[in-house]
Amino acid sequence: MAKYDERFKQRLVDAYLQGESGIKALAARHEIHHAMLERWVAAYREHGSAALRSKYGSYDAQFKMRVLKHMWRDELSGREVSARYDIRDAGSVARWARLYDEGGINALVPRPRGRPRQMNASPPDRPAQANSPDTRPREELLKEIEYLRAEVAYLKKFRCAAASKEAGSAKEKTQIVRDLRQHHPVAMLLKVAGLARSTFYYQLKALHSDDRHADLKTKIRSVFERHAGRYGYRRVTAAIRQTGQLVNHKAVQRLMQQLQLKSLVRPKKYRSWRGEIGKAAPNLLQRQFEAARPNQKWVTDVTEFNVGGEKLYLSPVMDLYNGEIVAYQMERRPGFELVSSMLKKALARLGRKEHPLLHSDQGWQYRMPALRQQLKQRKLTQSMSRKGNCLDNAAMESFFGTLKSECYRPQRFSSVEQLSETLDRYIHYYNHERIRLKLKGLSPVQYRTQASRTV
Questions:
Q1: Could you tell me if 307 and 435 lie in one domain?
Q2: Which residue has the higher pLDDT, 71 or 357?
Q3: What's the domain count of the chain?
Q4: What is the pLDDT of residues 162-202, one digit of tens each?
Q5: pLDDT at 272 exceeding the cut of 50
Q6: Which PANTHER family match (predicted)?
Q7: What is the span of the domain harbouring residue 247?
């Protein structure tokens, strides 16, 4: 390796700092490697002209250990920490780290130069003793002691973590080795753990990557628990974006899988058929579930709940403009009064010029002359699904599926009264708080209110 005097180094450093040329161009002009010039500049900035003078000598084990700890703690490169401690040979730090991994702090002790001194052989006539002391070299004994200490420390940590689900996994072993690497050689810890070096560094990188998402994981769990597991990754993403944080839905999906957060699954709805009663209306809705304004298209249906053998029936009406539940009624029996009372509440919210289309299935309640007379008086047009085709009223069926999967099935109810109170709270939550992606991440009431302000 060529030697360069202090004046040559100073001239190149000054040329770079004065902006005459870049690092690579200046190094190529003087036929030196650009990494060497970078090291000179970094050392000059840190220690001044003294860092450019030739320096000889060795470093003790304590100094080397201090440099390594500084590098690991602040996550510096070997070149950066060499400049800070004025270490002229940039490869020294990497060499020290390798020696420490293999043999601990004892491997950092400088070796004496020259040939080792020859020890005088013991006299041949000395009798051998039966209980003679261990004749292994001191270095071998120290290495064995260091290994035993690492083994004891690892086993203590492993017993503390044995109750976790990931005990014995590569991730758990990596976490233990990472915690102990400041006190014991990595090579010995990996040998005790039975972990390959490549696996250790792969898992270590994955752990650092997980730490980057710690705040996002906290927000995801908070949103998920606040809505009692009703939100999947799409709604969780929308809720976090409403706070002003930009986040990708795929990242939220991956993190929710890691956290084992899974939204509730909606089972199929039970349906029954009573036969032909009254007169059916034509299917005027034709699965056009979008509305341009509030109170233009309504859909309705009846669903059943069972609590300890007692039944409760819910009859809501939904506005297809924003999915809002306009009115609802709950009764113990599915009589005509259930639908009639619900319709009276809904009609009370209409203005004089509002005449929505009311779509339902062909249930007997909707085919009664009394109900048809109510609609005729308020000039509402009636529409019905085709017989046995639930898809014609898919918007209402979707609401029932959401209601039962998010409110009814996850809980245990002791009485019908308790269920009724819970349904009241949920429908208010559904209208005012629960966001919908098709409504730009707003709740139905928020969307309707916002639209009315812009008109």
A1: yes
A2: 357
A3: 4
A4: 555 555 678 888 888 888 888 888 888 888 888 888 888 88
A5: no
A6: TRANSPOSASE INSF FOR INSERTION SEQUENCE IS3B-RELATED, TRANSPOSASE INSO FOR INSERTION SEQUENCE ELEMENT IS911B-RELATED
A7: 213-258
Question: Which CATH number does the domain housing residue 25 bear?
Answer: 1.10.10
| Residue 124 resides in a domain | no
Number of residues in the chain: 455
Looking at the fold, whether 200 and 241 belong to one and the same domain comes out as no
Q: Residue 266's pLDDT is what?
A: 62
Looking at the structure, tell me whether residues 308 and 236 fall in a common domain. Answer: no
Q: Give the C-alpha separation, 395 to 320, whole Å.
A: 8
Residue 218 CA, chain-centre distance (Å), reads 8
